[in-house]
Amino acid sequence: xxxxxxxxxxxxxxxSCHLLELGSGTRILVDCGMFQGxxxxxxxxxxxxxxxxxxYLLVTHAHLDHVGRIPKLVKEGFSGTIVATDAxxxxxxxxxxxSAKIMKEDYQTHYKKARRRGTEGKVPQPLYEEKDVDAALAxxxxxPAYDQSFELCKDVTVTYRNAGHILGSAFIEIRYKxxxxxxxxxxxxxxxxxxxxxxxxxxxxxxxxxxxxxxxYGDRNHKGALESExxxxxxxxxxxxxxxxxxxxxFAIERTQELLCILKEMHDKGELxxxxxxxxxxxxxxxxxxxxxxxxxxxxxxxxxxKKRDGTVFDFKGLNYTLTVDESKAINDVNERAIIxxxxxxxxxxxxxxxxxNRLWNPKNTVLFVGxxxxxxxxxxxxxGAKWIKIYHEDIRxxxxxxxxxxxxxxxxxxxxxxxxKDIEDLQRIFLIHGxxxxxxVLRKVMGEKLHEKAHIVEPEEVIYLT
Length: 467
Prior knowledge:
The protein is of the alpha/beta class. The chain is built from 14 helices and 22 strands. Helix 14 (437-450) links the parallel strand 20 and strand 21 (455-457).
C-alpha cells in the first residue's frame, strides 16, 4: 500500500517536503524546501527519513521553500535522480547558490562575534556550501516538458503541468499501479492566481484519486488584478509627487519581474513621475536574466508581444541594476524620488535592511509589501503594526507609510483553489498542505460547503495511507 509522509509544509507554509512510498518500495520525494520564519530552526535538524534511500526527487518549482534543502539532502546521502522543468533547474541554481552565499556570510559574522565571547564552538555551521549546490546539480536529471508524460520507473508515470505560479512551476501527476489497479496522486506545489501578467494561467487538473493541495490563502480572496495594479500605480505616483521614496521588499522570482512590467508600462505611457528606479538585488537580477532566457517559450502572450515590440520584456530608461555593494551603498545618496526594489522579500536579511535603516523613519517615504509575510519574519511584524524595529543593533522608529497589496500574490486565493479542485474528476481524498493551520480550517470548511468534499489537514510526519 502506498503512503505519504509530509516532513514539511504541514500546518505551516514553508519547508515543503513530502515522501511518497509506493507498494513496490520506490521512494519518491516531492520538493525539499527550506523552512522560513519561526520554523527556521528546523532546517538544522537531520532529515527524519533516510535520504540515501530516496530514489527520485520531483521538484514543483524553484522557490526557496521548495528547493532550499536539496543540497543538504545530497550531503545526507541522496544520490538519485532529480526531476524538474529546465526553467526550474535554471532558477533553482540561482536560489541555492544565493542561499549558500547568505549562510556563509551569516556564519562568518556570528563566528566573529562568538569568538569575542569564547563561544565560537556553539555557532552552527551553514547547512551547505556552494560545492554542495554543485554536487546536487551534478546528479542525474530529467527535464520534462509540460503535458508530456514519461515513465519514471516500472509502473510509475509522471506528468508535469503548468501551475501558473512562477517560471517553470508545475503541479505533478503521478500515476502508479496498486495491485491490478492504477491510481493517480497529484501534488499541487503552489498554484497561480490567474492574475499574473508574466506567467500563463494555471491549467486544469482533469482527474486524480488523491490530491495534495496548497492552502496558503485558503481563508481569503485577493483583490482583482486591475484593482491591485491601480492601487500600486497610485501609491507610486502619490509618494513620488510628495518627493518621497518607495521601498519594496520583493521576492527575487516572479514578483520582481511582475513589478518591472508594471513600471515599464507606466514609463512607456508617460504615467511614471520622474524618478530613479533601482533593482538592488543581485539574485533578482540573475533571476530576471533567466526569465529573459525563457521569454519566448514560457512567458505570457502579453510579455511576448512586449518583447517583439521593444526587444526586451523588462528593461526601460531609468531602471538601474545594482550588482555591487558600492552601487547599493550609492543609493543612500539619492534622497528623494527613488523606487528601490530589494530583497529579501520577508525582510529577514539582505539589502532591504540597509534601506529600512536609512529610510523607515521618514514620513514622506513608503514601504510597499507585495508578497506573503510568514509568521516570525520582520516583514510580518511591520505589516502587523510594529512601531519600532531593531536593525543592526539600532532601534529604528517606523514613520514611513506602510502599504500591503495582496492582489499580486502568485498563489491562488480561496476562490481559485476551489475553482481548480472543483473540476478534478474521480477525486477520492483531498489533503491540505502548505498553509497555516487556522487558514486551513477555513478552507476545509468551505470545501465541505461548496464541493461537498471532506478535506484532511495533514499533520507533521503523519502517515497517510492511500487506500
